[in-house]
Amino acid sequence: MQARSVAVLTGAGVSAESGIPTFRDNNGLWRQFRAEQLATPEAFARDPELIWKWYDWRREVVAAAQPNPGHLALAEMERRIPQFTLITQNVDDLHERAGSRNVLHLHGSIFTQRCLQCSRESTGPRPQQCECGGKLRPGVVWFGEALPPGVWHAAEEAVRHSDLLLVIGTSGVVYPAAGLARLGKRVVEINATPTALSDQMDETLEGPSGEILPRLIA
Ligand code: BV8
User: Fold this and answer.
1) Which residue ranges have their beta carbon within 6 Å of ligand 1?
2) Rounded to whole angstroms, how far apart are CA atoms 107 and 148?
3) Tell me, what's the pLDDT at 2?
4) Which of 40, 83, 98, 128 could link 67 by a cystine bridge, Cβ 3.0 to 4.6 Å?
5) Whose CA is nearest to atom 79 of ligand 1?
6) CATH code where residue 211 lies
7) What is the pTM of this model?
8) What would the pLDDT profile of 132-141 be if each residue is shown by its tens digit?
9) Are 163 and 188 in contact (CB under 8 A)?
């Protein structure tokens, strides 16, 4: 890969081979709900305990999962390519556990929680309440909520200045994240199936990212 500056946008598909259910496949226990119904401030206001149950379950699934060869290949790419930025929609920590250093989490992290009263954010095991006595919410970006401005700006800049943008394991239906694909000079999609973004790609590599990415760095 002769590109000097590379940006990567990943979605749930890059963690699928680690056993983490994607959003739009029928992911077992929660298939009777759609992410759009649960991952919202309204759902949390209506039933905070149900929503925390969902996130606690997902935290266990992530903690028990291992990074797959796709995550490891992306960490290797970062070591080899001078200007490399990994942007993810995922809230899991598998990119970091695979060795990626500079990860932009557009939608936050499943292991953080934020106080509804004082907005203090903490990472790790969830206490019953904040030190200030306030209630805690998951530290992720829900539907209808703005992305962290600094992270979004950094992601846009990285894509604008990239020679190559890899769009990996995302259905491309969630905005503004999916809109990054439009900003790339040269955009290559890696996905198990065609997606909403495929027709705007310069190239698509169809198959599991855990198999395709290691071949790219070989
Ligand atoms: C905002 C965190 C405004 C929480 C998530 C109508 C039209 C257009 C847009 C909208 C609309 N109505 C509302 C909107 C906006 C909305 C949106 O885009 N809705 C969609 C559903 C239509 N967006 C928002 O609300 C965003 N905020 O717009 O704010 C604003 C501005 C200023 C001030 C106030 C407000 C916020 C969106 C963030 C939502 N949070 N996650 C949590 O995780 O619990 S989104 C959630 O979906 C995850 O982050 C996930 O990553 C993301 C996207 O899904 P994907 O990653 O693509 O996963 P998916 O399952 O869909 O696809 C998996 C893919 O992998 C598939 O393509 C599959 O083929 C592939 N695959 C599977 N296995 C493999 C594989 N590929 C390779 N290898 C494999 N092995």
Assistant:
1) 11-13, 16-17, 22-24, 35-36, 39, 89-91, 107, 140-146, 169-171, 173-176, 191-193, 195, 208-210
2) 8
3) 73
4) 98
5) 208
6) 3.40.50.1220
7) 0.96
8) 999 999 999 9
9) no
